[in-house]
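User: Predict the full complex structure for these chains.
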Amino acid sequence: MKDYVIIVAGGSGSRMNSTLPKQFLELKGRPILCHTIEQFYQYSPEIEIIVVLSGEYLQFWDDLRRTIGFAIPHRLVAGGKERFFSVKNGLAIIDDARVIGIHDAVRPMVSVRTIERCYHTAADHKTAVPVFAINDTLREVEGGISKTVDRNKFRIVQTPQCFDASLLKAAFEQEYKPEFTDDATVVEFYGEKINLIEGNKENIKITTPEDLELAHAILSVENRLR
Amino acid sequence: MKDYVIIVAGGSGSRMNSTLPKQFLELKGRPILCHTIEQFYQYSPEIEIIVVLSGEYLQFWDDLRRTIGFAIPHRLVAGGKERFFSVKNGLAIIDDARVIGIHDAVRPMVSVRTIERCYHTAADHKTAVPVFAINDTLREVEGGISKTVDRNKFRIVQTPQCFDASLLKAAFEQEYKPEFTDDATVVEFYGEKINLIEGNKENIKITTPEDLELAHAILSVENRLR
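Assistant: Here is the predicted structure of the two-chain assembly.
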């Protein structure tokens, strides 16, 4: 019984003013995706790594990883139209898992400790997602009007979202719903309670050029931050 | 009619594992407070700067700014027990303002553009607070159970929170309520609509050692980020 991670890369890169999808953009000399894969390999060299890419980029990445000599083993799977279907495609090639984590390809700054906490909790309690508390004031906007809400009641959710393998597979047998914004929501709709684990705040999702700059900055001091 | 900023420094520094309050901690060779003051001076050398400090640190800071040769002019005011009373003490020495902004001393990474947007909007529309959208999934926690909520309905709120001077003064004549978590809430309770303006995400509140590391990192690439 092994642990798996499904690294999901969806986007077309349009928000980055770049033709290249975000996971391939350069961060400290290498594609973002390399950093992301490496964090899971650092957590455990035994973990099985599956990378889900948009079909049109499978060959591109396979060539690129050879060219740059990126040697961490991982299997490639073609993605679907929505994240839900991408994850489902990844799940389809897994048959001997204990815990499966699902992680965004564009979150290269996940700490090994966050990964550890999530996999360990999911092994013991079936579900685990990394979160952090909100330090700033939070406002709810509705029809042009906003009001302050109690920030202590809210948590920002990141990835890897980790689950007991049988539970996750069963949950993804449900019919797709637009409300499935993340994997925990799918499992929640299936009726399972989601355990919230302490994440690391710098584990940001790189979606804008500013995020990429911030990631560069964070990796410059990474040894102190992790 | 001048524009003012009240820079509020409250904390005792206990969460930083440091005896020194956070606003005095070193960031790129100088106290955090110097960076914060400088951003407003960069926005406009004409802006009137009032710094509210816990009474026990007024002499300390006055000595420190001389020692390090920090020359940007600003007036010092003793703080109160709650933020509300600290702001009120700052307001008490203002009598000729057009717009008053209130800013956290421990947000040195506010961009000049964010300051500009807030002051300009408040001058035209009475209120302005900088916010940014949430990129990650958001969960609401209640009694040990959490559920995904629609992140598009929420905004993270930062500072400077800027207001028409007469409106702000009138709002702070209200009796103190524990619900007054930020200055916009005070003005909101007084009955005025709050305008939400685009902020800059890296304008974080430095409250933990990790935040300070992140701030170091951000300032290393500041020219590209601002």
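The CA atoms of residues 29 and 216 of chain A lie 10 Å apart.
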